[in-house]
Write a structure and sequence with these properties.
By secondary structure, the protein is an alpha/beta fold. Helix content is 41%, strand content 16%.
Length: 389
């Protein structure tokens, strides 16, 4: 893994994640004209690397914006106002598709799991059997809960119903397999749309929305004469993605350069090795924190490789604990909604290194001791390193 010398803090949240020096250097480089051949080449390569990472048989779009913009681009370019979608939610960010759909006049039905659990596939099947669904959305890893979706089960159920599969990969892409050319189920069903952002497992600063469309999704856009969007309309961006010398809206030159550098690092590591590294990191962190009596709300069977939502043991107060950690340069995220104050969220993805994980576990244990709680940092670090070995 690369050196992390430019990072002054341990940013161990579910995103943004630590940024490698090579990516910082690309971001801080001279701003080229958006038609400069050097930038055009970087843009082309960034598109190609993204397409290769996702096994995309259709088209990839890189647009300045966040993961939420990527969600919007994915939805309104495949589903018309008045059509119906099923939102399959396993947490706070899965729920966001409900508001998005409603904002554009899309009929929304939803199914929600208990936080920390996966949705019941049979309930999904029952709802889809009522008919008329244009698409279903799945959040691959929900950033609020650390639960990973069971694509092997859900994708065939959705495709059997005739609906498109829109996969929110914001907290999974580049750490968990999302191959759009790989079939799910005996009938060879594929993912139709995968969307993500730059700032999580890809390890780039926030600022790039990434959306990949398969052939069926592109056919859906082609069947629409207009959509309720301008900046988010892929038809207007398509000439730029096919030839980055073309102009629609000024690209974020330095962000594209940084994203290009990040994608080169992702692909240089190799996807199988990267996926295994993230699995190892997630299991190691949760096992180490368990030494402190800290339990993930997701069981290992459904826990994500990229982040964990960790319940506090009795007596540990959220705000003083995380404030004390921040004073030592370790930043963890609070929990959301009903879990606020009862848990914290820790990221273990992207450019995170074993050394960073070791420091994190050690600082957490020492801080617990300082706040008057029983903790054994040496044992927790030993458990971490045993799982990382």
């Amino acid at each position: 893994m690369p050196g992390m010398s430019k990072n002054k803090e341990l940013l161990m949240i579910p995103g943004p994640t630590p940024v490698a020096d090579e990516i910082y250097d690309a971001l801080a480089g001279e701003t080229y004209a958006h038609t400069d051949p050097r930038f055009v080449q970087n843009f082309k390569e960034a598109l190609e690397l993204t397409s290769a990472m996702l096994g995309c048989p259709g088209e990839v779009y890189l647009v300045c914006g966040t993961g939420t913009l990527a969600m919007e681009i994915a939805l309104i370019n495949t589903v018309k106002p008045g059509e119906k979608i099923l939102v399959i939610s396993q947490g706070f960010f899965g729920d966001r598709f409900i508001q998005l759909g409603q904002a554009f006049g899309i009929q929304v039905e939803h199914i929600k799991s208990q936080w920390g659990e996966q949705v019941d596939p049979q309930e999904v099947k029952k709802i889809l059997a009522t008919g008329g669904f244009k698409a279903a959305t799945i959040t691959h890893v929900d950033t609020s809960t650390g639960v990973i979706a069971d694509l092997e089960t859900l994708v065939p159920i959705i495709k059997d119903s005739g609906a498109l599969v829109i996969l929110d990969g914001v907290c999974a892409t580049a750490a968990v397999d999302e191959d759009m050319s790989r079939p799910y189920g005996a009938k060879g069903y594929l993912l139709d749309v995968v969307l993500t952002g730059s700032q999580k497992a890809i390890g780039c600063p926030p600022g790039m929305a990434v959306v990949a469309f398969g052939e069926q999704a592109l056919a859906s856009r082609a069947a629409m004469t207009t959509i309720p969007a301008y900046y988010a309309d892929i038809v207007l961006w398509r000439p730029v993605m096919q030839d980055p010398t073309k102009y629609f809206a000024t690209p974020a030159v330095n962000m594209v350069n940084a994203y290009h550098a990040a994608m080169k690092m992702v692909m240089a590591e190799g996807l199988p090795a990267r996926y295994q590294r993230h699995l190892k990191y997630g299991r190691a962190v949760r096992a180490a924190l368990a030494v402190y009596g800290m339990k993930a709300i997701a069981t290992e069977a459904v826990a994500a490789p990229t982040l964990s939502c960790i319940l506090y043991p009795p007596g540990v107060e959220d705000a003083p604990f995380r404030k004390a950690l921040a004073g030592k340069g370790l930043v963890l995220a609070g929990a959301l909604a009903a879990l606020a104050g009862k848990a914290f969220r820790i990221g273990h993805m992207g450019n995170t290194t074993p050394e960073m994980l070791t420091s994190t576990i050690k600082i957490i244990g020492e801080t617990l001791q300082e706040l008057g709680h029983t903790a054994d940092p040496a044992q927790a670090v030993a458990v971490l390193q045993e799982h990382l070995a």
